[in-house]
Amino acid sequence: MASSTGLSFKFSPLSTSFKQNQVPLRGICNGNSISLPSRRIRPGSLRLRVACAAKPETVDKVCSIVRKQLALPQDSSVTGESKFTALGADSLDTVEIVMGLEEEFGISVEEESAQNIVTVQDAADLIEKLVGQKAA
Amino acid sequence: MNIRCFQRNFCAAFPPLVPLQLPSPMETHLWYILPDEVKSWGLLNHYSELLSPCERESVNRMRGDQLKKRALLARALVRTTIARYQTNCQMNPRSLKFRNNLYGKPEVEWRNEDNLSPLPLHFNISHTSTMIACGVTVNVPIGIDIEEKQRRTKNNIIAFAQRYFSPYEVKVLTAISDPQVQRQEFIKLWTLKEAYVKALGKGFSALPFKTFTIRFRDTTMRNFHPPGTTVSEASDIIVESSDDPTNPANNWQCALLEVAGSHYGAICMEKDRIAGANAPMKLTAWKTVPFVEDVCVSGTDAVLALGGIIGQ
Questions:
Q1: CA of A3: which chain B residue's CA is closest?
Q2: Is A24 on the interface with B (CB under 8 A)?
Q3: Tag placement on chain B: N or C end, fewer CB within 10 Å?
Q4: ipTM score for this prediction
Q5: Name one GO molecular function term (chain A) (predicted).
Q6: What is the predicted pLDDT for the residue at B269?
Q7: Does the pLDDT of residue B290 top 70, yes or no?
Q8: Could you tell me the CATH number of the domain that includes residue A125?
Q9: Are A62 and A120 contained in the same domain?
Q10: For A61-96, how does the pLDDT look when each residue is reduced to its tens digit (9 = 90+)?
């Protein structure tokens, strides 16, 4: 029965997650066989990448720029996990948001990096990385 | 039988989908829905039953009813439209499988076990808050983009163009003194650039907007047109690579339209070698409500060619 307040779909939630753009894993190939490297791992040759989540202030600033671009009501929830597309951003919105972030943080975002931004958190993490690189 | 209260749930029966003829080479079929015209709950529920579980989940994740409806209509439009081109049997739109190519561009995944004969169909969709469009071609890739004519950018247009467009395009836009005209020319350029990148299907980063220029060129030569086709007075649309401006991207053809009086639409398709290098792009357009009606709008005011199309 249709609800009187708005659309209500009877969708059953799925437990399996749907991964788009699955990239095939590549093994190390030696001709036709796949082998693992057997040399000893020397200290110093291990590169640890510690991914730090962006500071809350950065996330908040991104949220506010997104809200402004998409003209979202103040009470609408925008968090680090919010996906741009789910909030209604089309490609022009996304590009404008990136431009807004560049101006706000004094950074320059390459198209390659911009393409990988899916959530607010992604944008915030990228900003901090670029700001960090600028300072270095 | 108690017939005092007719309480049986009445499910509106929807007619089967009307089959379609494939587009001919160098022809685009453009289908569009105006979401405000789709109000029936029964119809929306029927559409939702066509979607895969993943698609339904995606629709569910959209924030708010309007966005959910838009996402639902987009998937329903693609599924029903592609299904209708299946020639040998009644195609169930629910059976179609889709995947993304390596760069994220959606395409049909034809599998033998579905009793479908693979069709050389290519499609691309675009939507705004007031229109959902799907372009279909055979043999060659297609990209489309639609945008409301009155769309305003939050940023200053020239600042935006300086950041993202090519120097020539910035020059063209800067030379326009009327702000409304400047805004409309900006939107036209944006849709054309988007359509081109979507047609190539390699993602935004493979072809940053700054690396190519879209320009309009008046046609000085009038070719012979078969009787019955509407000849557009509009200009040619040329795509030039910034690296090699003397060698325009000759294997891609772009066209620009005004749709339903409210939108600019850009279509970009690869030229079909078999059809001939200079075969003009043809367009047939319909306004549709899947399962309900198709209205062919080619040659009417609902579809005005602004550039690049010769036959409608």
A1: B41
A2: no
A3: N
A4: 0.84
A5: acyl carrier activity
A6: 92
A7: yes
A8: 1.10.1200.10
A9: yes
A10: 999 999 999 999 888 899 999 999 999 999 899 999
Q: What is the pLDDT of residues B145-196, one digit of tens each?
A: 999 999 999 999 999 999 999 999 999 999 999 999 999 999 999 999 999 9
A32–B contact, CB cutoff 8 A: no
Q: Are residues A96 and A43 in the same domain?
A: no
Instruction: Encode chain A in three state secondary structure.
Output: CCCCCCCCCCCCCCCCCCCCCCCCCCCCEECCEECCCCCCCCCCCCCCCCCCCCCHHHHHHHHHHHHHHHCCCCCCCCCCCCECCCCCCCHHHHHHHHHHHHHHHCCCCCHHHHHCCCEHHHHHHHHHHHHHHHHC
Cβ neighbours of residue A21 under 8 Å, at least 6 residues apart? B100, B104
Contact flag A2-B41 (C-beta cutoff 8 Å)? yes
Q: Is pLDDT at B229 greater than 80 in this prediction?
A: no
What residues of chain A lie within 8 A of the CB of B53, using their CB?
A: 12, 14
Alpha-carbon span A114 to A92, nearest angstrom: 13
Mean confidence (pLDDT) of chain B? 86
Domain range for residue A78? Answer: 56-135
**C-alpha to C-alpha distance for A130 and B116, rounded to whole angstroms:** 49
If one counts the domains in chain A, the total is 2
CATH match of B28-39+120-307 with 3.90.470.20: yes
Query: Which residues, listed in sequence order, are joined to residue A45 by a DSSP beta bridge?
Result: none
pLDDT at position A102 is 94
Q: Where are the domains of chain B?
A: 28-39+120-307
Parallel, antiparallel or unpaired: strands B97-100 and B27-33: unpaired
Model pLDDT for residues B83-140, shown as the tens digit of each residue: 999 876 667 899 898 998 888 899 998 876 655 667 889 999 999 999 999 999 999 9
In the block, tokens 């009813």 appear at B65
CB-closest option in A20, A88, A115 to B63:
A88
* B205 with A95: Cβ contact below 8 A: no
Query: Out of A107-111, B36-40, B171-175, which region has the weakest mean confidence (pLDDT)?
Result: A107-111
| 3-class secondary-structure state, position B125 | strand
With an 8 Å Cβ cutoff, are A88 and B48 in contact? no
* Residue numbers in A near B72 (CB within 8 A): 9
Alpha helices of B206-287 — where are they, by DSSP H? none
List CB contacts (< 8 A) between B147 and chain A. Answer: 92
Q: Do B147 and A92 touch (CB under 8 A)?
A: yes
